[in-house]
Amino acid sequence: YGNTLSISEIKMADIPDVDLSSLGVTNFGNFSVEVVDPVSDYLELMENVFDFPLIRSLLSRSDFRFVFDAMHAVTGAYAKPIFVEKLGAKPDSILNGVPLEDFGHGHPDPNLTYARDLVAIMYGENGPDFGAASDGDGDRNMILGKGFFVTPSDSVAIIAANAQEAIPYFKSGPKGLARSMPTSGALDRVAEKFKLPFFEVPTGWKFFGNLMDAES
């Protein structure tokens, strides 16, 4: 982030449009543009973070039903490859899974008001056992069970409190916890209980990225 403050000049090259729908490398004189598949890269990372065989065994149980609402946002592109193709969830467990520029005329904020499609299913007769929705860029979520819901501010605290026990990547425990200023203080309490370094940062991933780069 500090380097971006010293940028004094931007040079633009007059080149043909790059086909972003086609994977591969396109060369332009002395430089090249590579189009990658972020879904496959993300999936590979997640397999190193979570216990996929354990999750797959849960989703295969006849007494467990799951539904995820992508709210026509960016996570829709990841939902089918991960939940359906990799973890074996039923195709109809994905709601609003096609990313749309206008979010299907909705508002991709995972709460009881805007995730009404998911809420109606979860609170309906014989609703699923577990439901979740994510926001426009996939960094906040709402989790629902039978007759209850967890807000994004609380869900990050619950995940942090159980990370060492439930997430293989954190088997040695997290190095620290961080949240942005608008997020509630639930995560603060987790950091205090587990005596972990805690950081409150301005809104924006560049600030979290700085913490990760510093291995804090």
UniProtKB/TrEMBL annotation:
GO cellular component terms listed in the entry, alphabetical order: cytosol
Gene Ontology molecular function: metal ion binding; phosphoglucomutase activity
Keyword set, alphabetical order: Carbohydrate metabolism, Isomerase, Magnesium, Metal-binding, Phosphoprotein
GO biological process per UniProt: carbohydrate metabolic process
Cofactor(s) the protein requires to work: Mg(2+)
Domain (Alpha-D-phosphohexomutase alpha/beta/alpha) ranges: 41-144, 153-215
Any one Pfam family match given in the protein's UniProt record, by short name: PGM_PMM_II
Catalysed conversion reaction: alpha-D-glucose 1-phosphate = alpha-D-glucose 6-phosphate
SUPFAM superfamilies: Phosphoglucomutase, first 3 domains
InterPro entries noted in UniProt: A-D-PHexomutase_a/b/a-I/II/III, A-D-PHexomutase_a/b/a-II, A-D-PHexomutase_a/b/a-III, Alpha-D-phosphohexomutase_SF, PGM
EC nos: 5.4.2.2
Enzyme's top EC category: isomerase
Family from the record: Belongs to the phosphohexose mutase family.
PANTHER family registered for this protein in UniProt: PHOSPHOGLUCOMUTASE, CHLOROPLASTIC, PHOSPHOHEXOMUTASE FAMILY MEMBER
Protein name: phosphoglucomutase (alpha-D-glucose-1,6-bisphosphate-dependent)
Species lineage: Eukaryota, Viridiplantae, Streptophyta, Embryophyta, Tracheophyta
